[in-house]
Amino acid sequence: MGQYDGKIVIIGAGSASFGMSTLGDLMAMGAENLSGASILLHDIDGENLDRVETVFKMALDEANAEGEDIDFRLVSTIDLELALQDASFIIMSIEHGNRMETWAEDYYIPINHGSRQVYGENGGVGGMFHTFRQVPPMLDIVDTMHDVCPDAWLFNYSNPLSRVTWSINRYCKREYNWNIKNVGLCHGIGAGLALVEGVFGGILKKCELVSAGLNHFYWFVKLQARQKLDIKSMGPFKQETIQSGENLLPRLKERVIHWSREHEAPLIQELATIYGHLTYPSQSHPGEYLFWADAYCPSVKYDFPGYARKSEALKKDLQATINGKKNNYWWIKRSGERAIPIISAIVHDLNQDELAVNITNGDCIQGLPRDCVVEVPATVNASGIHGKRIDPMPKGILALLAHEVILQDLVVEAAITGDYNMAMQALCMDPTCPNPTIARHILEEFLKHQGHLLPQFLDGS
Questions:
Q1: 73: alpha, beta or left? (left if phi > 0; alpha if psi -120 to 50)
Q2: Cα(433)–Cα(107) distance, rounded to whole angstroms?
Q3: Does the pLDDT value for residue 460 go beyond 60?
Q4: Does 7-97+125-184+327-339 carry CATH code 3.30.70.20?
Q5: What does the domain layout of the chain look like in residue ranges?
Q6: What DSSP character marks residue 123?
Q7: How many helices (H) and strands (E) does the chain have?
Q8: Which of 160, 217, 280, 409 is the most exposed place for a label (fewest CB within 10 A)?
Q9: What percent of the chain has pLDDT over 70?
Q10: Could you read off the pLDDT of 232-255 as tens digits, one per residue?
């Protein structure tokens, strides 16, 4: 497609999982489409950054020695301003503080005080404090962007995706009157697509599918055959031939309810039964936005020790690669993340359809505030990322989304301002928090344990 001389910055590149998956996408998909680009790796952890840079450079050298001619100009730095200078695209995945320690606190502190939350990453009380921690370093990053690369695109993978994306947008508009080009990206839609394929038998290439809602709370609101197709037998359901134009949503509901019983996913079963549509991924994420989810999946929490073991294993793989004890192609593959394909679509004006991006709502979902952040399909070309207008959402689903958006509005404001009373108001509105007394105890305990990660609240109380 021709040479590209822009600069792509990866913030959080030292992360063994995020950094290597993004670089794997660059090698697997961007080597041709983005040839000539400068790749700038940035992380605050210099040791991890050096390890990732070394492995990436080794792969580039090996590929070029084998005649692949991969033309990336590679630089790394721990200096944020230097990293962002004249950037065209920025891909960010960061966590403020020790991720496993703080997430464990996000989960256990609220529950120990009587909260009914599940999971505690994106919604509920835990998701609220995750947002409060994430926003300050992100605002530092966008302050620097405003100074040195105001026209750059920011693609963020960091959770809580809806809340931090909205926080960045609101801060930039309020502080600078700047409409930052900020997009949240999540691979969660992939789990939903896999479930649909699983219950029908590989039909999606022959269907028009629309998923819309909020990040981790998306709903399949359209599934229509574009051509004649067969759906497989499943449990009590026989194999059928579907005609072009036929609506598959009623069959999806039936099959998901059956699948949920078989796979012991009672929350997904109940939501499909009551609201008539599939929401996913798994029970953990939708459950974060429902105060009654604990009645169906009370023990949903993250595998903290398992994640820590996986992270250490990735670091060992990187070091083994550097030491020549492991082949350097284990990480070069498509990750399923969308930043690199979207960058290629912008650079080459591809008019590419994307199933799920997290962007300012505008007119995409009627009945939700224009400035909130929604997850919707979009078209990507040289002029930008254009969210598609969704047909009116079912009233009950819209009510669920609207309640969460109203809560997110308060959380975003407290995250930006550090207003203690605003944080209390958000806690009191969160239905997983039983009453104001418990809310106050939770807030004070978080400030005690995580105050050094919540600088905006230092003067809040």
A1: beta
A2: 13
A3: no
A4: no
A5: 7-97+125-184+327-339
A6: S
A7: 16, 14
A8: 409
A9: 99
A10: 999 999 999 999 999 999 999 999
